User: Fold this.
Amino acid sequence: MTRLRSAPAKARAAVGRAARAFAGALALLATPLSAQDGALPPSPAKVPWSIGERFGYDVRFGFIKAGSGEMAIMGIESVRGRPAWHGRFTVHGGYLALRVDDVLETWMDVSTLSSLRFAQDFKEIGRERQKTFEIFPERKAYLQLGKIEKPSVADPLDDGSFLYFIRTVPLVVGASYEFNRYFIPDRNPVRIRVLRRERVQVPAGTFDCIVLQPIINAKGIFSENGQAEVWLTDDERRIMVQMKSKLPFGSLNLYLRTMSVRPAPESSK
Assistant:
């Protein structure tokens, strides 16, 4: 009886972890720069993405297809007057009657790539959670809407912006990296180990990749016990091709199925 009651909870937790991870996995207050949409400031950070970049993924729990996900750059928008890349992650699907509909969004300063805003809108098996954080790099503080302001760190990053930031780091196989940039200070450091090179085949094709192991000081798929691995293309694009995590009762995997990549703006190359 214990097993029968615990199985749905484990499956629900697994799908939820996939959503948060794809994130990591996770716009409510964004104000589009209607007249300047797509405009870059004079000194944007060099990045391998551009407006319209969009990747689609199959989400699997072991051998079971549990849903689909997407990682996309929606545009450049204004956050408190500062141009910001708007990245959006979604996961839809579930296992049997256990459904998820999760959205995670990040806004990154186009010059510093620091996080300016972070939003989660998770709907998981009848339970809903919405959180929006305003992040102020200039005074090392963050504010969760409805709560008091708290101290943050220099050059802060959130769950979503970390996945973009790591694409800009010159990763060396065999090296380990440590960052104290997660916007909630007690979850630092975030550690990245570059494990190996590997060629993998996914629905979108065959790719030469470097394999990373991210470790975040928090519960979830990127915890030390999760042993998650992420495959990024071994080229200047650093596209996330695959992600796997080991769990006590199985594995959670994401596989790239579709991709739409546009040339980066000249000023960001």
